[in-house]
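Record pair follows.
FIRST:
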Amino acid sequence: MRSIDSRRWSLTLKTTSILVAAALAAALLPRAAPAQTPNPVLQALEAQAKAQPGFAGFLAQRGQALFAKAGNGDWSCTSCHTANPINPGKHAQTGKEIAPLAPAANPTRLTDTDKADKWLKRNCNDVLGRECSVHEKGDVVVWLLALKR
């Protein structure tokens, strides 16, 4: 009988060891990032764009190009927001400091649709001399949301 008990004990120890090792391994595995909350500004722009014929999605590359493009009087978005919107900027005329534009550096950016609409309209008029299209706004927003620190 003693040999049976020692076998059970041995099996119990092996099983316990395996379970402990599995628990430790699971604790050390990288955790999946939590699902990102959809951006309200981007959602509003997508809804507007989908109402127009031929919408195939926004492109970050186009947004980056538009951001750097010189417009009215050689101004571009980079004139105030820098070529890397993760960094703080400075207004080209007044010198007033501007908080980083990219949500990766400033989590409050692009969370309020009314505020985003106001500033996109104003800045597009300043830089391009006209209001940006919904596609242009969406491209820039997608690019800004994709930037990482």
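SECOND:
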Amino acid sequence: MTGVRPSPELLAVARRWIDAIPNHRPNDLRNLMTEEGHLQFVGTADDELWTGQQVREGVAAFFDVIPELLKHEETFAEAYEHEGTGWACLNHQLIFANQPGRLFNVRTTLIFVLEDGAWKIVHRHGSVPIPNIEMTGTEQTAIADLVAAARSGLSFDQHEGFASVMFTDIVNSSGMAAVMGDRLWSSEVTRHFAQLRDKIEANGGQFVKSLGDGTMSSFASPADALSAARAILRALNTPGGPAIALRIGVHTGDVICSDDDFFGSVVNKAARITDTAEPGQIRVSGATQAMLSDRSEISFAGPMILALKGFENPEPVYVVTEA
């Protein structure tokens, strides 16, 4: 093919992509990828072939579960371009902190197109000689979770959309009901739900429903969900009322809406994450944290890799440390 030439520019872009992974720069990862639906992400395992916007939204959380690196050395790199298309191939040697005695070779191929004057990744293929679970010690499921939600079947009266789902749950509600009596406790829970609805709606959310002593709500963005969660915790202990303690959980992805209710794996995972929280604590999924990691007003601890009931693979879960 005539006109193919080495591309120092593309090699620099490819290296920025690689460097963003261990240094946890989610915006760099997303911004270097195309926003078009033909984006492809290919890994080593049989089921690691994903396409579309779920890749762009989930890629940071996918990489975020990789353990700390003791060694990250480039051993091969080249890039070429031709009339608005380019490609790069890189090889790196890695040693992980949790496996200091093992050396891994990781190969990455990136295909680029020139979009409005900027190079964008349209295809990524990463290859390692062993499965991710053996190399990193954990499954990387963030993109798979988003894709699975997006592929959920739709019926006539359903529609789907991207949302952050938040659950709240009152800690030790049965014990408080026993102390206060059913009638007084029921009145207090009603007042509590009204307070939650105010905070949720004031932060752009939709109060979906109450669930016994808990609630479910949805938000257009994870930032709105965290703003509501933090506002709820701040407003809880009003003078003269019982000291209600809440656990709160948030997960983000494609959900299915029907008759003003929400369904799908995103909803189920948000509920399971809530179950893991301590009293007075907000916990979020890896997908949610990845979309908020560039927000200076929000800090996180973690991740903790937790097994969630009903889900085959462990999930990285973060604790919001500033509320």
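COMMENT: Residues 149-158 have pLDDT under 50 and may be disordered.
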